[in-house]
Amino acid sequence: MNPARTRAYIGLLIVTAIWGLAGPIIKYTLGGFDSLSFLTYRFAISTMVALISFAVLGIHIPKDKNTFWNLMAYGFLTSTVSLGLLFFGLENTTVLDMSLITLANPLLISIGGVMFLGEHITKKEKLGMGIAFAGTLLTVIEPLIQNGGSEIRLSGNIFIVGYLIATAWATVMAKRLLREGVRPETMTNSSFIIGLISLLPFLILRPGFSLNALYQVPFTYHLGVVYMAILSGSLAYYLYEKAQKTIEIGEASVFSYLYPLFSMPLAVLWLGEKVTPMFIVGAGIIALGVAIAEIKKKRYNTSSNKQSLAK
To answer: Is 95 helix (H, G, I), strand (E, B) or coil?
Structure first.
């Protein structure tokens, strides 16, 4: 396998583990901070990391005006809009509900790659995605059958769906920015700075806001914010955006199917949520679909590399 692709896959596996654990950590930390305080606090930490990064690596702002404004739009979409929808959604739904809904994310991203970036999906990849989608449908339908819809957090689920749409849109924008020469660290750092600037006024002007109240929150909740800011934020976004320089967004998005392998155990053992047998069956079907898609990629990429060498 091409060494660059190998590095991209390793980076995406790290991101998968970090973002797979993020859902339960967000849900737990929301017990100490409301969404607005949590997000603003997180962006403040990530902004400090960004400023240090700019000081060490330099600031590489696009000179082209269109690229610059696209970068600003991407930063707002991927931070304030996307993460805002995710955090507000998790305030009103469970981690398991979130895991079910977000399994549709790779499908949306792959469709966006085909429609806006001219990316290609082969028959075997379609087969793998189709099987994974069938598993997603099974796990999504299960709560409706089990609970009759009475316990479904409709408002939270709607926010999560909005988060998926915003994420898919942001992923397409990220690929375009990378093609225009924007560096991954510039995209990551700019996003969190924009997130802080856009949310901080709302937090400060909110009635009853007090920094002292934030200081009094138990230390364990602060650890959750630090995790989301540094690992799930600065590090994971950088690795994800860097990987997209090498592989297609549809290919990278398939790793999202593995998030439940990390989020479900924590949701059950730590947060006390329940996993039904049907949910496990759905996860197994999804894993099968991912395996088929990845086998396709390995063979396809090997064949493509041989053809390139022959030329």
So the answer is: helix
